[in-house]
Amino acid sequence: xxxxxxxxxxxxxxxxxxxxxDWNALEKLINYVIDGGVNYVVTLGTTGETPTLSAxxxxxxxxxxxxKVSKRVPxxxxxGDYNTRDVVKRLEKCPLDEAAAxxxxxxxxSKPTQEGIFQHxxxxxxxxxxxxxxxxxxxxxxxxxxxxxxxxxxHEVENIVAMKxxxxxxxxxxxxxxxxxxxxLVISGDDALALAQxxxxxxxxISVAANYFAKDFSALVKAALxxxxxxxxxxxxxxxxxxxxxxxxxxxxxxKAFLSHAGIMENQFRLPVVPATDALYRQIGEYLKHLGI
Length: 293
Hints:
With 293 residues, the chain is an alpha/beta fold. It is built from twelve helices and eight strands. It has an eight-stranded parallel barrel, surrounded by seven helices.
């Protein structure tokens, strides 16, 4: 799992005005982030608006990402749901031969107990042909996966190899880092907290911001992993206002506004996500102008 250390980027899904997938823009984005130095890419993460994609579109996105990445960096595929049986079926049907791992979000909406979360992951890990990365994001799922549950899975289920932690709870993060198996990776899912979490001992970040700040964010993570915190702090403070703007209304509305300003893709979405407000869009433009971008 050394290949999953460093900077991963949760790719957005570009759309055209007619709401079809903009494949040319996605290819442009993939090349942009790889040229910017990210260590791997994640397709079909929640930042990719996966709840609005059809089953066929998800398969097409997996195949397209493999083709355009062309083994330049590893590819992680997002496959998660609150329906355990459905996740197992999708693991069986998806073309995963070229995947480095599966990123699977904790069950959402149904708010299962910790035992339910444990059994969910144990079941999908047994069915998965690829290693599983746990994903704890209680702000979206409605239920926190505790440090105890994470550590139980890490120690007891062989095919579970990493955790993307986006609870925002620094004490919980440190408990996991302290008590995890030696080869189990702990990956930040919070761009604004990434520097602090890397200082605590995390192994990298799966980032939204790296869609736009590919070069600077990758350099930040690399510097922090090399214990060069003065350089990492400089980069962090350069991007800090950008992180705030990105997430002030909605993800991925914020990051798509940045990418629209950069000319990488149109500022288009599928409902229920809508574009950033005009006021926020202007703020982002002024921030980028201030940076000289």
